[in-house]
User: Fold this.
Amino acid sequence: MVERESGCGAGTGEQLSSSSPSLLCRLDQTHVPMLLARVALGGVFITQSLAKIAEPIHFLKVIREFQLLPENPPFFINMTAIGMPWVELICGILLVIGFRMRGAALLVLLMMVTFTTAVFLRALGEFNTLGIPFCDIEFDCGCGGGKPINICRKLLINSGLTIAALVATFSSSRFLTIESLFKKKS
Amino acid sequence: MKDTLVSMVVVVVVGCAIGLGYNAIRSGQKINIERNYFKVIVVDTDTTTLPDEPAKVPTDDDSEGGFQHPFIPVTVEEVMDIYESSAITGEAIFVDARDQAHFEEERIPGAYNISNYNVDEDFALVEEYLDGPEIIVVYCGGGKCEDSIFLATELVDRGIPMDKIRLFEGGMKAWLNENLDVEQGPANN
Assistant:
């Protein structure tokens, strides 16, 4: 049942130099962190991407509010609104089924870092302008189903998801994945 | 590492390709990849031009007049006057810049719907009603909503004189705050 592509000390990842694996390696070998990371990231990215695919105009407006992309030429901001939800959906599916996971996880990690930084900078801007406590700030970040969300809560959730993306990127566990099934058959 | 990078590139390319394909065939909420949905007019001393710089995004949640635009702003009291007199004289019409769902949920009675994000189709349906009146009041949700500014810019692009346009920045929010009549259901046009 257990399939390891490159477990701790067996190729990439953390190399074992002694007979006893490190705590992180032993934790990884339980497959629990990777499974939790895949389910959490896959679930969040699939559900949120479907909402963005259903409401691309709303997502376009949210992207603009972050002021990270130029409005002229409009290609970049429009293409982001059209393409990004599908990239998120594919990443979510790949993580759940366990295929090409490292690439998907690294993309998710990049997106999480970008989103979280953007949310933090926008919240900081509102904090400076409105002068209200940072944790009282709420806005629609395009990640709360179209509703305003408390930013401290959002940053906390995003931090957790970023850690999950780190786990999914660097874990060598291939437990319950399509890749492990293919390898067994071959 | 090479495999990982290849996977990432493939996911991005495939995702964008599916997105473009789905955007091309979807019936509503289609995004025109070449269109700037957030155009604003800046008034120059000599000429009026469409600028490259983005519209200022206000941070005041309840702002009335916090936006930069060249249109004549009207308060909710002025809009009420225009509404009452237009019922008799027909000198003014109201244009709702929000999407169809919000428009059908509640709107200023008699308003026409031209969504900023579906302007080509909506404008064609309403165009004939825009020539007669002396005043065109454009509004959206109020608060942080800027769609009325973007739509007003589109109307000017389509030949509507700028001096006919009145921008009701308080929008539906201000209208509802005054407990004024609203209309619901599909558009009349």
